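Researcher: Next entry in the queue.
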Amino acid sequence: MDSWRLRGRVVLSCNCDVFCPCMPSLGKSQPTHGVCHTWWALDIEEGHADDVRLDGLKAVVLMDIPGPLSEGAWVVGLYLDESMSEEAAEAITKILSGSEGGSIGWFSLMIADFLGAKRVPISFEDHGRGWQISIPKVLDAEVDPVAGPDGSPTRVVNSGYWMAPDVTVCTGTRSRFRDWGRNWNLTGGSAEYADVDWQGP
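Model: Structure for this entry, 201 residues:
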């Protein structure tokens, strides 16, 4: 792959207390409860992989991590929007596994067990202040910003965090995941969203 880009939004929910120590420590701190159970959803507003257009596509990533994010040994599974072409699905799988380098190329060093990719219907909806994400019988989630003293969303800005430099701190108002031998209730845990612009290689 000579060139790729994914520009859009990522919404994430995990089992850490609000807010997740990965953000200020850049993935070096121990998760709040020792292990990291998380999923994140990607809504691609504009994207390509060489000449394959990826605009308007969606993906969800399962990540099960035994300790600090930066120490690896991740278990990862992908859910790809059922509407995407085979060419798009292949390209996004390669990009999100890190094999195509670029902004998230370091994922390839962290993933110990790749569970594969499933084609599913994915709903990714803006409900005013936060986001609702769902996959039938797998994921049911709503993520809402944590309000600051003036009532506006709490944000971390100008950081070296892997997702993006500017991140909105959230709570998983509702966050249930059931698949691949896992049954997680992340409701009340830390969450976040950010506008992303990932490119490679």
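Model: The chain has one domain: 4-194.
Researcher: Noted, moving on.
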